[in-house]
Amino acid sequence: MIKRTLDLTCYNKSFFLFGPRQTGKTSLVRSSFKPDLFIDLLKMSEFLKYSKDPSLFGKEVQSLSSKKPIVVVDEIQRCADLLNEIHSLLEERSVQFILTGSSARKLRQKGVNLLGGRALTYNLFPLTHIELQEKFSLEEVLHYGSLPAIALEQNQSLKKNLLKSYVEIYLKEEVQQEAVTRNIPAFARFLELAGFENGHILNWSTMAREVGVHATTIKEYFQILEDTLLGFHLGPYSKSVRTKIVSHPKFYFFDTGIVTTLQRRLDSIPPPKSPSYGDSFEHWVILETRRLLSYRQHQFSMTFFRTTDGAEVDLILEKGNEVWAVEIKSSETPALRDIKGLRSFLKDHQVQRAICVCQAQHLYREGKIEFMPWKSFFEEL
Question: From CA 308, how far away is CA 120, in angstroms rounded?
Fold first, then answer.
């Protein structure tokens, strides 16, 4: 059993737990609580029963004998009407509701209020290097990702099959259903192209031409991926003294293994000095940063910086007046020419820290820039 960083028992309140499928939401809930009522809306019988009569849920909860019962609803987005019942029940009696979900899209589409501040919101991600501990292998995680079932599987062939199955069944079928689109072939083409555009500045018009749809449709497709928690947009840093900065965001999938699969690279692990290895390392550092900031409840915003003439910083972390400029390089000793974007940024911006996250054995400095081992960087967050 992997001990998860996220502690759900800190507060005796109702909460939402969001995360992509197979990140371990149900396992974490079951190991943390002994629910009086557990409803799994992935089961067709449960889904049909409560979809037909949501009021039945309220009657069942009211019949529970515990003074403060714990009620779990797994995959709440499949029957969002239950939230109205839950809202009423919170007014009437003391109940702790634990509501898991792998998509916020249907909840937002229906204009459902997420219990008006009566419930906390948590997010669960694939396993971090801290959670994996001695089972962590950087090369394995860069290539196969860290979804629990895949990261803990020792058989390489089975790892590949699990990832292929995840992409084929979950991404291509379930997300297509969320899209409510009849143009399934176009969405499938988009999904593969999105894998190759991972971590790049998005050009919706160019992608639209390749997929054969309008640019607005490409934007909608990316929004579907974000709403279903399969990735996130990283916006450009806006507080720049320069006028010529890019205005389009980047998009990152939630797991490195998903990108490896979409790019059809599962059968060939890239060598450390290759561009693919560097891209995967950058992707993973950004993912791990996002996960750890969320778990530790640090309110840093995450953006990137790039000018139209190509000067770029991979990650800008900002909290109030505190700014960290972070460049990510997969080598042990990055050359100064490799971080020219970071050096350019420092000429025009005041920052508290300028960091090059890399695979150095120990921390060292060149002027204002800290060359920091990735483990040390995550400890500093």
Answer: 41
Of the candidates 54, 89, 123, which is a domain's last residue? 123
Domain boundary among 123, 152, 174: 123
E strands within the chain?
A: 15-18, 37-40, 70-74, 96-101, 120-123, 231-236, 250-253, 301-306, 312-319, 322-328, 353-358, 364-366, 369-373
Q: Are residues 107 and 248 in the same domain?
A: no
CA distance 138 to 357: 14
Domain residues for 296? Answer: 129-380
Instruction: Identify the pLDDT of residue 116.
Output: 64
Q: What is the pLDDT of residues 10-45, one digit of tens each?
A: 888 999 999 999 999 999 999 999 999 999 999 999
Q: What are phi and psi of 370, to 5 degrees?
A: -95, 120
- The rounded mean pLDDT for the chain is 91
Residue 179 has pLDDT above 70, yes or no: no
Counting DSSP H helices and E strands in the chain, the numbers are 17, 13
User: Each residue of 112-160: pLDDT tens digit?
Assistant: 555 666 788 999 999 999 999 999 999 999 999 999 999 999 999 999 9
8 A C-beta contact, residue 358 and residue 330: yes
Query: Does residue 9 sit within a domain?
Result: no
Say which amino acid occupies 218: I
Please choose, from the candidates 121, 102, 116, 115, the residue with its C-alpha nearest in 3D space to the C-alpha of residue 15: 121
**Beta strand spans in 66-194 (E):** 70-74, 96-101, 120-123
Which spans in 153-273 are helix H? Answer: 156-165, 175-179, 184-196, 204-211, 215-227, 256-262
Give the pLDDT confidence of 224-283 residue by residue, as tens digits. 899 889 999 999 998 765 556 778 999 999 999 999 999 999 998 899 989 999 999 999
Beta-carbon-side half-sphere exposure of residue 208 (alpha carbons within 13 Å): 11
φ, ψ of residue 112 to 5 degrees: the values are -70, 130
Does residue 260 share a domain with residue 149?
A: yes
pLDDT computed for residue 240 by the predictor: 63
Together in a domain, 320 and 191:
yes
Percent above pLDDT 90 for the chain: 71
Whole-prediction pTM value?
Answer: 0.93
Q: Tell me, yes or no, whether 75 lies in a domain.
A: yes
